[in-house]
Amino acid sequence: MKIRLMIFAPLMLFSCISYGDETFGLDTPEGWAMAFMTSSAQNLGQMPPQSVNISDISISAELSSIPRLTQEQQKVGLGGSKDEDLNKSPAFGRLRASIGLPWDINAEISWTPPFQINGSKPDHLWGAALSKPLFNNEKIGIGLRLFLLRGGVTASVTCSEDVIKFEVYTDENYVGCVGLSEDRLQMNHEGVEVFLSFNNSSVILPWISLASSNIDNSVEIDAPLKAGRETSTIHSSGSIQTLSFGFNYDVGENRRLSVSSSYTPLEVQRPNDSSDNDNFWNLRVGLIIGF
Question: Which of 22, 115, 119, 226 could form a cystine bridge with 168, CB 3.0-4.6 A?
Fold first, then answer.
């Protein structure tokens, strides 16, 4: 018996059964799950683009929530008929560093530390971005940000510790896992984000943004089974849009607190009608320190 699908995102994992390499649309249960999990790592901005001097440096840390899914939403295996455990972690984090360039351009690089949690670990997960203010007066500001993310996450997902402790071909281990698998999700994406900020004389800067991202996901499965080692790859690609809103608060000299929420509408065609909200919505908090 072969493995058909295994999908996981930062600290949120699942597996299912199939017959070789396949490509899924974004509105299939499999494609929806990949898009949902890539949304949890989307490389969005922490604040509107600001005027910068050459060699201005800042560093920041960010933590974002990962929504908890219902049992019905976790039916993503076998075209939406198999339950999968997607609620592995409630959060995703990254570190950022930026430097000012000529023409008010701010260059940014980000990185997610490879900390292992629940058997999953980021694998060379890094991002980059260029941002620039386009218009600014006493009332509003408009800015543009170009971004990308490369890398993935590795974990023993298809054949996890919770599965291999059971006898092969039982209800708990019906794919026949005989050891831990070495699986990897690639979460590549790139996009553009437009910011609108509302300038005022207070220490709070409210803003909204709209981002469009092209995502290109793949999952590499490497699972030791009773019937032989299974290696296969699945793919999904397409475009997603994300609306964000938040504010930045000056907490001290060259220190800013960032609080925001992001909403990504996602559609999925399930075998059975469901009233669940399948869109992605999270909360992000971060601290930005300038030098």
Answer: 226
**What is the pTM (predicted TM-score) of this model?**
0.87
Beta bridge partners of 215: 189, 238
Strand partners, 3: none
Q: Which two tokens stand for residue 58?
A: 């800042």
What lies within 8 Å, CB to CB, of 150 at 6+ separation is: 124, 125, 126, 127, 188
DSSP 69: P
Q: Where are the domains of the chain?
A: 5-290
Distance (Å, whole) CA 183 – CA 154:
6
Quote the strand ranges of the chain, DSSP E: 5-9, 12-16, 22-24, 57-65, 75-77, 82-83, 91-101, 105-111, 120-136, 140-155, 183-198, 204-225, 228-252, 255-264, 280-290
Predicted confidence band at 68 (pLDDT cuts at 50, 70, 90)?
A: confident
Q: Residue 3 above 60 pLDDT?
A: no
Spell out the CATH class of 5-290: mainly beta
- Mind spelling out the 3-state secondary structure of 100-161? EECCCEEEEEEECCCCCECCEEEEEEEEEEEEEEEEECCCEEEEEEEEEEEEEEEECCCCCH
